[in-house]
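The protein record passed on for reference:
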Amino acid sequence: MGQATKVLQLFKTLHRTRQRVFKNDTRALEAARIKINEEFKSNKSETSPKKIEELIKMGSDVELLLRTSVIQAIHTDHNTLRLVPRRELLIENVPYCDAPTQKQ
């Protein structure tokens, strides 16, 4: 797969992940959209294959972090937040389990 294809695929993947992770949060959706677009635009003229691979790796790491670590929280009243975890983040909660499994 060529680098241009990898870059475009990463761009699309980041935007899809952004839409899932920040679903129903217009402010976060817009901020993430702007940040993704700015980062890709600022590196648009990069020609070094090594640097491009490093940027692709960093973008992939960011996508993984967003997908696996971000949980939405909603203010329900003055001192209370309600967490809204996505289904793919729910894992079996077994004490001292070295290999957790996803809930069905």
In short: Residues 3-85 form one domain. Residues 64 and 92 are 20 Å apart (CA to CA). The helical segments are 3-21, 26-42, 49-69.
